[in-house]
Write a structure and sequence with these properties.
The protein has helices spanning about 20-30, 35-45, 50-65, 80-90, 115-125, 165-175, 175-195, 195-210, 230-240, and strands spanning about 35, 65-70, 75, 105-110, 130-135, 135-140, 155-160. Strand 5 and strand 6 form a beta hairpin. It folds into three domains: about 20-85, Winged helix-like DNA-binding domain superfamily/Winged helix DNA-binding domain (Arc Repressor Mutant, subunit A, Orthogonal Bundle); about 105-160, Alpha-Beta Plaits (2-Layer Sandwich), CATH 3.30.70.2650; about 175-240, Methane Monooxygenase Hydroxylase, Chain G, domain 1. Helix 7 (about 175-195) packs antiparallel against helix 8 (about 195-210), helix 7 packs parallel to helix 9 and helix 8 (about 195-210) packs across helix 9 (about 230-240). With about 250 residues, it is an alpha+beta fold. The protein has a four-stranded antiparallel beta sheet, with no helix packed on it.
């Protein structure tokens, strides 16, 4: 059986800010995700990004397909990054339902796939908050309301299952819950201690990346004092402080 053995909590992943990361963070947290240049200039200034640096970054990001530009100098996310924003929004506000003990199970049936295709499929299944029980068999508690993407029907068969193994024990084997919780607590501490705008943006960017890895399990399968909702609330408060132009 494939197991995620709990390890020591990883260091908090605080990536250094670039002009590109600041712009993307602001747009990913904005609905709709588009802003005029004049607003971007105002918003990026507290993060140490000057006007000329911003304009150069916008030009590169448009050329690379990260952004689209309208005739009135409004920049918005490309279709590819709109999909990323939807994943981020779902991570911050996951849609759940009451859990009655059933598990989703996906069995991969497609064969003849190359390494790149297998890696892409693993990424897609992980993004759906599924965990690999053993090679080709993925599952999770059936407490999410999200549908499985239509494209998966050609690659896998889906089932409803009731594993014999006690559910809390199985969940602890499939996800590194102790390590996830410890990192979330570390992020909450860093957020509370951060005073500079750039530091807070960096911390909450890491918080959203961490929330993408939250398995969103039923409460009865989680360790005591699980900090998932607390981290989501902290991020929501931060985004509200930015007046809707939050971090991503």
């Amino acid at each position: 059986m494939r197991m995620n053995v709990s390890a020591e909590p990883a260091d908090v992943d605080l990536r250094p800010l670039s002009a590109r990361s600041v712009v993307l963070s602001l747009l990913l947290g904005t609905h709709p995700p588009e802003l005029p240049v004049k607003d971007l200039i105002r918003l990026v200034e507290p993060f140490g990004v000057g006007g000329s640096t911003l304009r150069a970054a916008l030009s590169r990001m448009t050329a690379s397909g990260d952004l689209r530009r309208t005739d009135d100098a409004v920049y918005g996310l490309s279709d590819r990054l709109l999909a990323r924003q939807r994943r981020q929004d779902e991570a911050v506000r996951p849609c759940t339902r009451a859990w009655h003990g059933d598990w989703e199970m996906l069995v991969i049936t497609a064969t003849g796939r190359g390494p790149a295709e297998r890696a892409d499929l693993r990424t897609r299944l992980t993004a759906l908050r599924l965990a690999e029980l053993r090679e080709g068999v993925w599952l999770r508690p059936a407490n999410l309301t999200r549908p499985l993407p239509a494209g998966l029907t050609d690659l896998a068969q889906s089932y409803t299952a009731r594993p014999d193994r006690p559910a809390p024990e199985l969940a602890a084997a499939l996800w590194p819950l102790t390590a996830w919780s410890a990192t979330a607590r570390a992020l909450l501490t860093r957020a509370a201690e951060s005073r500079l705008a750039a530091d807070r943006l960096t911390v909450f960017a890491a918080a959203v990346r961490h929330l993408l890895a939250d398995p969103v399990l039923p409460p009865e399968l989680l360790p005591p004092d699980w900090p998932g909702d607390e981290l989501r609330a902290a991020y929501a408060g931060y985004r509200a402080q930015l007046g809707g132009a939050g971090e991503g």
